[in-house]
Amino acid sequence: MEVAEELMRQSRKGDAIAIVMKELAGDDDMAGWRGGSSHLTGDPAFPSPTRRLLVGESVEACGEAFSWRGRRVSSHRAEPGDARGLVLTFIETAPEAADEFEDWYESEHMPRLAALPGIFQAGRYQALPGHGPTHLAFYLMSDLALSQSAQWMAAARTPWSARMRRFSSLYTRYSFWREP
User: Most exposed: 44, 65, 72, 90, by fewest CB within 10 Å?
Assistant: First the structure.
C-alpha cells in the first residue's frame, strides 16, 4: 500500500505500524517516497534523497535497512488530500519526564503543527518493546517545504518545546517527498 494511504488509513489508537527505510541504490529510479535525514533549519532546500520509505502493518527490513515498529498513540487531523511531503521524528525521552512529554506533545506541540494549513494528518506512535526509539511522530503534508516554513518554526519553537528538548535524546528527523 502507498505510504500516504497507509498512514491515512490508520487512525485508531492501538493500530500497528512498521516502518522501513532502506538506502537508495544507484540505479533506483522507481517512483515512491524518497528522502533522508533532515533538521529544522528554516531552509526549504532539501538534500539529494538517500533513502526509500516503506510503511505498512508488516513490512520487513532486509540487509542494512532501518526498521521500527509501534502502535498508534494518537491522531490529529485527518484531512484527505494529495500528500507530497512527510516528516518522521523519532525521539527517546527520559523516564522522569515521560508524563510531561505526553502532556506537551498532546496539548501543545502536535495540535499546533497539525493545525497548519497544508497538514493533512499528524499522529504519534509508541515503539513496541525492543523496537525503539520510544516515540515516533509523523506529519503528512501537501508540500514538504511547509516543514521548513516560518509558520512551522513558530508553531514548533515554544518555551515548553525548549524545555522538553532537555529531556529528549536520540532525536532524529527524516523528511520524505513523493516522486511521481
Answer: 44
